């Protein structure tokens, strides 16, 4: 019998969850950015005009484009910061859920009209 053991079989190497946490939280950030920019564009005629990237689509074309840029930028930055880290996924998940809920509330017309 061999005295050395294959450590890969007995104790698999743990992969840091930082990149997964970055993807989860960045989705919440992108969602909130979409809602926030939508409310801003709804309130400002100048911003509405500025965000009209395509006339047939209207300001929604700019709103969604900017929100996607926020989402991807947040994902890249968080991934670079958390690439090799082990993070509490439950806290990250609850943070993302909170951002999703805020996004829904911001775009709910009766609540959005109060702002």
Question: What would you note in describing this structure?
Answer:
Helix 2 packs antiparallel against helix 4 and helix 2 packs parallel to helix 5. The mean pLDDT is 89. The protein contains six helices and no strands. The chain has a domain of 66 residues. The chain is 72% helix and 0% strand. It has 115 residues and is mainly α.
Describe the protein's topology.
Blueprint: H1 7-10, H2 18-43, H3 45-50, H4 59-82, H5 89-107, H6 109-112
Helix pairs in contact: 2-4, 2-5
**Number of helices, where a helix is a run of at least 4 consecutive DSSP H or I residues:** 6
For the termini, the CA-CA separation is 74 Å
Indicate the radius of gyration in whole angstroms. 21 Å
On the 0-100 scale, what is the average pLDDT?
Answer: 89
Give the overall shape: elongated
User: Strand pairing plus helix content: what structural class?
Assistant: mainly alpha
Order of helices and strands: HHHHHH
Fraction in helix: over 70%
Low-confidence runs of at least 5 consecutive residues: none
Largest sheet: none
Q: How many individual β-strands?
A: 0
Determine the strand fraction and express it as a percent band. Answer: under 5%
């Amino acid at each position: 019998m061999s005295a050395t053991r294959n450590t890969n079989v007995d104790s698999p190497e743990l992969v840091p969850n930082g990149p997964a946490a970055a993807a989860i939280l960045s989705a919440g950030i992108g969602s909130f950015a979409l809602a926030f920019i939508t409310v801003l564009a709804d309130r400002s005629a100048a911003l509405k005009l500025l965000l009209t990237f395509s006339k047939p689509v209207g300001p929604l074309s700019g709103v969604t484009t900017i929100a996607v840029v926020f989402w991807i930028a947040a994902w890249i930055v968080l991934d670079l910061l958390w690439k090799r880290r082990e993070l509490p996924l439950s806290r990250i998940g609850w943070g993302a859920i909170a951002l999703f809920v805020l996004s829904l509330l911001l775009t709910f017309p009766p609540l959005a009209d109060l702002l």
